[in-house]
Amino acid sequence: MIGVLEVGGTHVSAAVVDPATWRVVRTARADVDADAPEHVLLDSFVAAAGSVDAPPAGVWGVAMPDPFDYAAGIGNFAGVAKFAALDGVDVGAALRARLRADVVFLNDADAFVLGEWAAGVARGAGRCVGMTLGTGIGSGWLVGGVVADPGDPRGGRIHTVTVDGAPLEDVVSRRALRRAFTAAGGDPAADVREITALARDGDATARDVVARSYTVLGSVLGPRLAAFGADLFVVGGSIAASWDVLEPPFRAGAGALPPVRVVVDSDHSALVGAAVHASRAG
């Protein structure tokens, strides 16, 4: 059995995963305040880990969001709107000391697609790309089940791409959609779920906002998927439930795409991916 953690912008999940089947055996989830002090954040990670009764020996896999030095286990969160208290902190050393176990890290989008490759919709795919749509946007690139750097985007991080000199997440992210919808005269309290529901129902403002954002995303990802030679494209994250609304403008911008698989309930994907990563390090 393998203990794993998955840290998101608003939560931490812990689980025990059976490497014989890649089935999540036990899991726990807790809310996290990304603006909390260092000791509060680390306490929440450790508390989650302690709640799933993981085996005392073995390597823990931890899926973390960017920007993070995954090899060294150190946060690089300066200038981003999350986990500022972990900037420069050796998270790996802190977790090893408190869990009394070794710890290895990987990017959360990499963990998502690796989990789907091991036990989900991308099982056994040769060249697979995963995209996570949530608070921000992430991407992971695999060749034969091994995380790969496609070169473009650098390190496989699609959120580092710029569009007309601005970060991609200024166009495609939860905050970008809400800002654009408000600027177009929409309800400033509407979140992505409400905006996409309005677009589904034919609201012209919502449809225009969604179309502009996801046509841009398609134009960014489509050529890179083709250059990578992807034979499968997997979409997950909290916004994936609205893919029926997002897909038409995405395809309009992307052009030809490989087969697309949507994972509406991807809560376990990154946990399984973290377990696969830990199993290879053990």
Automatic annotation (TrEMBL):
Keywords: Kinase, Transferase. GO terms for molecular function: kinase activity. Transmembrane segments: none annotated. The keyword Kinase applies. It comes from the Bacteria. InterPro entries: ATPase_NBD, ROK. Belongs to the ROK (NagC/XylR) family. This is Glucokinase.
